[in-house]
Design brief:
Elements (H helix, E strand, L loop, with lengths): L4 E6 L2 E5 L7 E2 L11 E3 L7 H9 L11 H21 L5 H7 L14 E4 L14 E4 L5 H4 L8 H12 L11 H11 L3 H8 L9 H21 L1 E2 L2 E2 L8 E4 L4 E4 L12 E6 L7 E4 L10 E4 L4 H11 L3 E3 L1 H4 L9 H11 L3 H6 L6 E4 L34 E3 L4 H6 L4 H14 L6 H9 L8 H9 L5 E2 L7 H11 L2 H10 L15 H6 L18 E2 L16 E15 L4 E6 L13 E8 L12 E6 L4 E13 L2 E13 L3 H10 L3 E7 L1
Helix pairs in contact: 1-2, 5-6, 15-16
């Protein structure tokens, strides 16, 4: 057995070293310490606080030299270091807790002050140590953030900012300062917002005129990015950062353009959580989001506690849906919410999945609530594992939110929990996810509304474009839009592997959403490889290449087509009689036939005796669509036969496929599906 890999902390980075000596302390994340492959070297001279800061490495930043595997091992060490630290805390010693959760000002010499956030948590409440208090030179308390700007002079606002930053700037230092601060007074409701906007630039050396220009430029770029991301019902650019972010230091929700850069930075974390049932939910009005909408959170939690915990974990900016994604509020604001959700809901997954180094804090039992593993009720549809939206939020770089001392002491890497989580991460991390597998995964999860499963699927299927989220849409309309946005391979799977046809859809080959959810045969479907031109492409209904303007049959590919066939049902599947001489499409030619055997993928009872069918073969002629000819279309100025799907079949026997191909009974041609 190979020696275990040791992670040595060096200037905030984790790197491999030699195996541990007898003075090293093993940390584990899993069923037992015996199975651990990771250790962190501990210096006997360090205090528990110093050991935690080394192990947890809250400012851990991946470098070009750090592989993905090393990063994953590093985040494993962060999780285990957190658990070990929580287990070692003395909750009865208030002084030691205050010392532990105090970030020394010298960590950032530009900040000279120190602020303490403290929550008076009732004794009968299950204490989450990291939610109790936080002291740092960056995170201002509510009594400062909530100070209204209304009626202030620029000098008053500057005094507030100097007090926060520990600086002694004067209006005379910059001719543009007074005008810039005056604009902030008009545009901002409180000091917290102004602090949030100016903090990235305060020590940058930029003049206030340059700061204003930078923010204005970022705002214009952000607006242009979001406007250009949507074309009709389709999101043509899924790589959209969140519209808003929660700045934990200012405790304010800010527009994304308040960040100095357009790409999502690695100090923007994400929060994943399961929503508790309605009776356990409260809607709070808060200055954090400028009272823009009531924020739904569990009754046993508070945003202040969540903020403290996230700060202690090392976060600076986070995306939290209840604060950053517009929620249901007053009726007059519903139109605004629907407009935002068209883009914001489908692209949520980008926040969690855009970067393998993305840190996500996960509350498995509800936002801000204690992390419960040993007694987790996996049958509860409200559990994180059972929600359809959390499919796109699963991350290798997750950190547990709500970790309690009791759970940390009990050993929190419970095997059933870890196995479930690892399986979920592996499913959602696939580069080319299979349509039927992901639909089955989504089917097994609970959703708050009928559109949620469809909307959540688009991102985890890695669709190159996404359907816009329309709250007024019905399931089948939303599903039809999703089909338009699938990858060509996924669309081909749907056409050739789904065994039935639709009696309700405008396109017979696209099953209804309910029929697809009811389909249980995904595990028995063959895995095949399509040639590039065999993949079913989609042309928008207005595309001139089609020669007509409706989109009901705008799906096409190039495949092996055999016309004028009879298909008879048998106990083994079906027998195909292929004419040895292909007839003209208008002919009633009755010549000699050659017999071939196929096994049915679909419903053979849909086949009618003495009916002429057209067969379309792909994947080295293993998969076949049995359909009825419906005329001729033009695609890219080429003739294409139009086919209405009846059912599907496969030709497993390679000798049969070879015999068919050598007989030259069909030809490659364009096919349009209706």
């Amino acid at each position: 057995m190979a020696p275990p890999l040791v992670l040595q902390i060096q200037h905030g980075l984790l790197s491999p070293t030699s195996p541990p000596t007898s003075t090293s302390t093993s940390i584990f994340f899993g069923p037992s310490p015996v199975s651990s492959e990771y250790s962190v070297r501990e210096s006997p001279s360090k205090t528990p606080k110093e050991v935690f800061k080394d192990i947890f490495a809250t400012r851990l930043t991946p470098t070009s030299e750090m592989s993905v595997g090393d990063w994953n091992k590093a985040t494993q060490a962060r999780r285990t270091g957190l658990a070990n630290t929580v287990a070692s805390l003395n909750l009865d010693d208030e002084d030691s807790l205050r010392d532990f959760f105090k970030a020394p000002a010298q960590e950032d010499p530009k900040y000279r002050n120190s602020f303490t956030l403290c929550e008076n948590i009732p004794r009968d409440t299950l204490l989450i140590p990291f939610q109790k208090l936080h002291t740092s030179p960056w995170a201002i308390p509510p009594e400062i953030a909530d100070v209204k700007c209304e009626g202030m002079q620029p000098s008053d606002l500057l005094a507030q900012l100097n007090a926060i930053f520990g600086t002694a700037m004067a209006l005379a230092n910059d001719v543009d300062m007074a005008g810039c601060l005056a604009e902030f007074i008009v545009d901002s409701c409180d000091v917290g917002q102004v602090y949030g906007y100016l903090r990235p630039y305060w020590f940058s050396g930029l003049t206030f005129d340059e700061i204003q220009e930078k923010i204005t430029s970022r705002k214009a770029y952000d607006l242009q990015l979001r406007q250009g991301a949507i074309n009709g019902d389709r999101i043509v650019n899924p790589r959209i950062p969140p519209r808003r972010i929660w700045d934990l230091f200012s405790n304010r929700v800010l527009p994304y353009y308040a960040l100095p850069q357009s790409e999502i930075p690695r100090n923007l974390w994400a929060v994943s959580h399961s929503w508790v049932e309605g009776s356990k939910l409260q809607k709070v009005q808060t200055p954090i989001n400028a009272f823009a909408w009531p924020v739904p959170i569990p009754k046993e939690a508070s945003l202040d506690q969540v903020r403290i915990e996230l700060l202690n974990l090392g976060a600076e900016y986070v995306f939290l849906d209840v604060l950053c994604l517009r929620q249901e509020g007053e009726k007059k604001d519903e139109g605004h919410r629907w407009k935002e959700w068209k883009l914001d809901v489908p692209t949520i997954g980008y926040v969690y999945q855009h970067d393998i180094y993305q840190t996500t804090v996960t509350y498995f039992n509800g936002l801000g609530l204690p992390f419960d593993v040993a007694q987790a009720d996996y049958s509860n549809e409200r559990h994180w594992f059972n929600r359809v939206w959390t499919l796109q939020e699963a991350s290798d770089s997750w950190l547990p939110g709500g970790l309690t001392t009791a759970l940390a002491n009990a050993g929190w890497g419970e095997p059933a929990f870890m196995s479930r989580l690892d399986t979920l991460i592996q499913i959602t991390r696939r580069d080319s996810p299979k349509l039927f597998k992901m639909v089955e995964v989504a089917r097994q999860r609970a959703a708050s509304g009928p559109l949620d499963r469809i909307s959540s699927l688009a991102y985890i299927l890695r669709c190159p474009t996404l359907p816009g989220h329309d709250l007024k849409s019905d399931e089948d309309t939303a599903w039809s839009l999703l089909v338009e946005n699938l990858t060509d391979s996924q669309r081909t799977d749907l056409l050739f592997l789904y065994p039935g046809r639709s009696s309700t859809s405008a396109m017979s080959w696209i099953p209804s959403w309910s029929s697809l959810l009811d389909f249980k045969g995904h595990s028995s479907l063959p895995t095949v490889v399509y040639k590039p031109l065999e993949k079913v492409m989609y042309l928008d209904g207005a595309s001139p290449e089609l020669g007509y303007k409706h989109g009901h049959d705008a799906y096409y590919n190039k495949a092996y087509v055999i016309e004028g066939c009879y298909v008879d049902s048998t106990e083994e599947g079906c027998r195909v009689r292929v004419p040895t001489q292909q007839p003209a499409r208008s002919s009633t030619f009755r010549g000699q036939y050659e017999l071939f055997k196929m096994s049915a993928l679909g419903q053979t009872d849909l086949l009618r005796p003495n009916m002429l069918y057209t067969l379309v073969g792909v994947a080295d002629l293993r998969l076949w669509l049995i359909g009825e000819a419906r005329g001729v279309r033009s695609v890219n100025k080429q003739s294409a036969v139009q086919i209405e799907k009846v059912t599907t079949a496969q030709m497993r026997d390679i000798s049969e496929r070879t015999r068919l191909l050598r007989a030259e009974l069909g030809r490659d041609q364009l096919v349009v599906y209706c």
